Amino acid sequence: MAETTYHKEKLYVPREVQEKLGLVDGDKLEIEVVDKSKALIRVLRSKEAAKKALEWLRNPPDLGEVKGRLTRKEIYEDHP
């Protein structure tokens, strides 16, 4: 279980929770208060997030290129 911090009217969600929920920029969280010590949280997926993901797949960012060639040993073996 991860703890979330409330500070200066903002709720901070730990990275571990963000990753488990698959949160991306533009997603919203719907919070339903059950009682003073319990709440249900639902992820509302952003349409923009889906558009961004599709755009990224259509036009992946230029991450540069590998200079030179990698040997089979470099690919398959760990080096200290």
Give a written overview of the molecule.
Helix content is 30%, strand content 26%. It has a two-stranded antiparallel ribbon with strand order 1-2. The chain has a two-stranded antiparallel sheet with strand order 3-4. With 80 residues, the chain is of the alpha+beta class. The protein has one domain.
Q: Can you give me a brief rundown of this structure?
A:
This protein has 80 residues and is α+β, with helices and mostly antiparallel strands.
Q: Reading side by side through the largest sheet, how are the strands ordered?
A: 1-2
Indicate the overall shape: elongated
Runs in which pLDDT lies below 50 for 5 or more consecutive residues are none
| Number of individual domains | 1
Largest sheet: 2 strands, antiparallel
List its salient traits.
single chain, 80 residues, alpha+beta, two-stranded antiparallel ribbon, elongated
List the helices and strands and how they pair.
Layout (H helix, E strand, L loop, with lengths): L4 E3 L2 E3 L2 H7 L6 E8 L2 E7 L2 H12 L13 H5 L4
Antiparallel strand pairs: 1-2, 3-4
